[in-house]
């Protein structure tokens, strides 16, 4: 797996620059972020290939070949040659004319002293020509008395490496905080765009996440009266729909949250208190985030039973709608479901399945996350109920989810993973699972079909991901399973013992 070395740092720097230039990483959904990340990584790989072309010639000079100009039609080819001169650089102008006379475009040229004692100089040239003239270029150039040799430099694909993955829960400190989704400073249609005080408040709360490290207590946020009023508005309206629209798991845990964790309509709960509650129920915990990680980093956090959670509150001017996840969405939608053991297991297995997979697979897993964890439906006594956090934290989405306006499809991971989604209006298509057990079985079958160069398991005692790539690792897993099986057999024998 790729460590956080120079290459990884270069990729991150490129992604940030590419994001700023192309307006990326401000998408409203995890899927949009995953798609943009795929594009950014492909552009980075193209840049690395262009750099690798010149490595054998002038890596020490730091040469970076330019891009093929957009003016050239699709049937033109770009390639690189190494030209060895007979008479030194005094013949450079004539050499250039040799190529130009053959209708070859020179997009870059660079000279160096030859490494051979027989010749004085060599030229590295980037050339562009029509496809049908490609084969004649080197042949024609070699016939010139000014040129001793022409070598075509073949493009080398950069060595494919597995993506960096966190191996311990503390490695989540390395997850990349990027520009927050639908940033109020930058998006003119954000409800807080014209509200300077709101923007300052968002920054104040975001700084908590930027400074947070694993093992620290989640800092307390003193929410304002306006923020608590926004929470109350949403809380009261959603509680009206929960009995008829929410799944039984959500209803049961929500009641427990009110009894044990201080959930009430008057004030916003603190993440530290809620995180401790989750740890007692399922081992999940919350971690403050400024608003956005890459899709890969966000999903990887689930592998450690960690949910990246925002602390800021949507703008009070539009309490029924938030263009990005806020603490109301996280606390009313995600937290109750993550406190259910079966659903928590599903969320963690989804996170483990994403470790080290390709960018294309990250897009698919992000889409599966969207149509399950965010907007999933389940069957309950022959009726449809909502278990997705996106529905359970929005009055409009929750009412819409069980209405005739929605097309409901059976959950099938290969199909669901490529379903187009909608993020600027109420969801028109939702997927229903027969049960959480059935959802788990289907997801495990799908994960088994994904290509990955290694397998992983999670060690809850050390909060670490173990790579299963050698016999010793397998023996450790087998030993743990044997202990569990022995305990199970012992208990079953005791139950079956006659009284």
Characterization of the model:
The structure is a single chain. With 499 residues, the chain is α/β, with parallel strands linked by helices. The chain folds into three domains: 6-57; 72-153, 2-Layer Sandwich (Alpha-Beta Plaits); 169-448, Aromatic amino acid hydroxylase (Phenylalanine Hydroxylase), CATH 1.10.800.10. Helix content is 46%, strand content 14%. It has 18 helices and twelve strands. A four-stranded antiparallel sheet has the order 2-3-1-4, covered by helices on one side. A four-stranded mixed sheet has the order 8-7-10-9. α2 packs antiparallel against α13 and α12 (341-354) packs antiparallel against α13.
Q: How are the elements arranged and paired?
A:
Layout: H1 6-22, H2 30-53, H3 55-58, E1 76-85, H4 92-101, E2 105-113, E3 121-130, H5 134-142, E4 147-153, H6 196-211, H7 225-245, H8 248-260, H9 271-281, E5 285-288, H10 295-302, E6 306-309, H11 327-338, H12 341-354, H13 359-374, E7 377-380, E8 383-386, H14 389-392, H15 395-401, E9 407-410, H16 413-416, E10 429-433, H17 436-448, E11 456-459, E12 464-467, H18 471-496
Parallel strand pairs: 5-6, 7-10, 9-10
Antiparallel strand pairs: 1-3, 1-4, 2-3, 7-8, 11-12
* SSE class: alpha/beta
Largest sheet report: 4 strands, antiparallel
* E-strand count: 12
**Which topology of the largest domain does CATH recognise?**
Phenylalanine Hydroxylase
Order of H and E elements: HHHEHEEHEHHHHEHEHHHEEHHEHEHEEH
Mean pLDDT: 82
Number of spatially distinct domains: 3
Strand order of the largest sheet: 2-3-1-4
Query: What is the percentage of strand-forming residues?
Result: 5-15%
The Rg value, from CA coordinates, equals 29 Å
Cα distance, first to last residue? 56 Å
CATH class descriptor of the largest domain: Mainly Alpha
The CATH homologous superfamily of the largest domain is termed Aromatic amino acid hydroxylase
- What ranges have pLDDT less than 50 throughout 5 or more consecutive residues? 16-27, 50-68
- Tally the helices: what do you get? 18
Shape: elongated
GO cellular component, one term: perikaryon
Binding site for Fe cation: 329, 334, 374
Domain Biopterin-dependent aromatic amino acid hydroxylase family profile: 150-496
Protein name: Biopterin-dependent aromatic amino acid hydroxylase family profile domain-containing protein
């Amino acid at each position: 797996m790729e460590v956080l070395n120079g290459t990884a740092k270069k990729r991150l720097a490129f992604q940030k620059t590419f994001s700023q230039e192309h307006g990326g990483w401000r998408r409203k959904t995890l899927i949009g972020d995953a798609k943009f990340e795929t594009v950014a990584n492909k552009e980075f790989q193209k840049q690395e290939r262009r750099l690798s072309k010149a490595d054998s010639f002038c890596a020490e000079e730091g040469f970076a070949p330019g891009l093929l100009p957009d003016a050239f039609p699709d049937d033109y080819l770009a390639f690189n040659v190494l030209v060895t001169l007979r008479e030194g650089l005094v013949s450079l102008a004539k050499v250039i004319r040799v190529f130009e006379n053959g209708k070859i475009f020179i997009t870059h040229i660079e000279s160096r002293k030859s490494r051979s004692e027989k010749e004085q100089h060599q030229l590295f040239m980037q050339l562009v020509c029509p496809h049908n003239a490609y084969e004649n270029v080197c042949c024609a150039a070699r016939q010139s008395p000014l040129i001793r040799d022409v070598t075509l430099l073949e493009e080398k694909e950069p060595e494919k490496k597995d993506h960096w993955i966190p191996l311990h829960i503390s490695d989540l400190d390395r997850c990349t905080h990027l520009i927050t989704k639908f940033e109020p400073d930058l998006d003119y249609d954000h409800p807080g765009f014209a509200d300077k005080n709101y923007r300052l408040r968002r920054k104040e709360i975001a700084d908590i996440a930027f400074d947070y490290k694993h093992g620290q207590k989640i800092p307390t946020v003193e929410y304002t009266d306006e923020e608590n009023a926004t929470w109350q508005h949403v809380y009261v309206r959603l509680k009206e729909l929960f009995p008829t629209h929410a799944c039984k798991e959500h209803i049961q845990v929500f009641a427990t949250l009110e009894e044990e964790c201080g959930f009430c309509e008057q004030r916003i709960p603190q993440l530290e208190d809620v995180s401790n509650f989750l740890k007692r129920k399922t081992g999940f915990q919350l971690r403050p985030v400024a608003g956005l990680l890459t899709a890969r980093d966000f999903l990887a956090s689930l592998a450690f039973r960690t949910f990246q959670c925002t602390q800021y509150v949507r703008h009070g001017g539009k309490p029924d709608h938030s263009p990005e996840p806020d603490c109301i969405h996280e606390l009313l939608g995600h937290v109750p479901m993550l406190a259910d053991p079966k659903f928590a297991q599903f969320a963690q297995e989804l996170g483990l399945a994403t470790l080290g997979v390709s960018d294309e697979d990250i897009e698919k897993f992000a889409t599966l996350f969207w149509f399950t964890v965010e907007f999933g439906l389940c069957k309950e006594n022959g009726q449809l109920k909502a278990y997705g956090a996106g529905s359970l934290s929005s009055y409009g989405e929750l009412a819409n989810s069980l209405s005739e306006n929605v097309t409901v499809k059976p959950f099938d991971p290969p199909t669901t993973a490529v379903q187009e989604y909608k993020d600027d209006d109420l969801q028109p298509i939702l997927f229903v699972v027969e049960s959480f057990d059935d959802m788990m079985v289907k997801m495990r079958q799908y994960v088994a079909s994904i290509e990955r160069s290694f397998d992983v398991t999670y060690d809850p005692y050390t909060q670490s991901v173990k790579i299963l790539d050698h016999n010793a690792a397998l023996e450790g897993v087998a030993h743990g399973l044997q202990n569990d099986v022995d305990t199970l057999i012992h208990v079953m024998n005791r139950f079956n013992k006659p009284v």
